[in-house]
Amino acid sequence: MQKLCTKFCLMFMLITCVINTVGCSSDSGQDNLVLEKTTVVEALRLALAKENMTVFTPTTTEFTLSDYSIALTPIALASLRADDLPDVDNDDVNGGNGGNASVITTAWNLGFTDVNGIQWTLKIPESGVSYINANEATIIGFVEVGQGRLNVTVNMIKEGTSRENEWVINKISVEEKYSVSTGIMGKITNSVTGLAVQGVSVSAFAYPYVHGDQAKATTNTDSDGNYKLFLPSGTYMVVADESGFQQANETVVVY
Description:
CATH superfamily of the largest domain: Immunoglobulins
Radius of gyration: 29 Å
Distance between the termini: 101 Å
Shape: elongated
CATH architecture of the largest domain: Sandwich
CATH class of the largest domain: Mainly Beta
Mean pLDDT: 77
Low-confidence stretches: 8-32, 78-85, 95-102
Oligomer: single chain
Order of helices and strands: HHEEHEEEEEEEEEEEE
């Protein structure tokens, strides 16, 4: 009876040990399953900064842009409007969404420069990061090009199995969607000083403008006063609006 008890006790201890060992393995394995979206996105950011890639260069690289440059008149010097085009409400200008059918909220915006010196911003929504397993992830985002976009899919892998191994790019695929190669470009300056005016809101509306119309495209001038609006062929009323200046608008034809 004592021998039987001894065998039973030994067997019970063996089973307990096995269970504890499996449990420990699960706990240690759990460390590799801590999958934070920010971690893999940050790894992609660093990789893009290091890589010399031309994969982001869109097929549509030749742009035909009509010119509309204007010298804005400070309000203090403006008595009458020089043209007979209607004033455009600020609400109409601010309501423009750049021609996109919907606005996608992005969780991460990764800025980088490719081998050709072109600056890009890869926009990734919160839902754009998914893990296949502890060592492989997929990131789906997009790069805006004109009024079109490049849909970007990045496959990231973790070399090795330890937590210290960095995520690296395994593969990038890019699909171009509806890039518009025509539009309007110009420079906004101060009519008194001749200096460029930064941050001017420039919007294009379908012509003839009707009160309440939403802008087909909207942008802001850069530090040199330059802007670009990508639009299909047609006639537009372009509006330049900035606090402290008289609003300027003009009819521009895009070919």
